[in-house]
Amino acid sequence: MFELLKAGGFLIWPILLCSVVALAIVLERFLALKSGDVAPPELIDRIRKLMKKGELSAKDINEIEENSPLGKVLAAGLRNPNQHRVVIKEAIEEAGRHVVHDLERHLTTLGTIANITPLLGLLGTVIGMIKVFSAITTFGVGDPQALAEGISEALVTTAAGLSVGIPSLMFYRFFKGKVNELTVDMEQQALKFMKILQKTS
Asked: Which of 73, 88, 127, 145 is most buried (most C-beta within 10 Å)?
């Protein structure tokens, strides 16, 4: 394994670093973007029951806010219960923008890794081919050992770059779709919440 890495030249190390960062982001986003944790389906019913009983205290609102990303969005509306509908809607939308930004955390980095690792592999290919032509100039084509270093560097870095870039791109697209799905779900929950506020006001 070490010999393979050594054959890839110096560009194999930034590609390996990108692979470690990408793996860390993928694992972290899998944990952070669980539907039940982001938008708990029972949260709206809990708020409805508390509002009907008239028992919605500041402590309850703080607990709802800390409960989940959806809780942060709905808590923004609960803090403005006597305001005009437009004011409540703006507060919810503002909180929603912050929540979506948090849901997309690290995805830009993952997308960047997906784009640059194949380019690093391509750069390794170019450097490897330059070494091959330099060896041909120096030793001619009769010495395969002289050509092997450049060829192996070209092939290893290309393979490594693609091996990191392709899965990174797949997970980037998957998580972007997941965030969009969760955003739509939270928007629907927020609409239900607005209807509950209308009925209780």
From this structure: 73
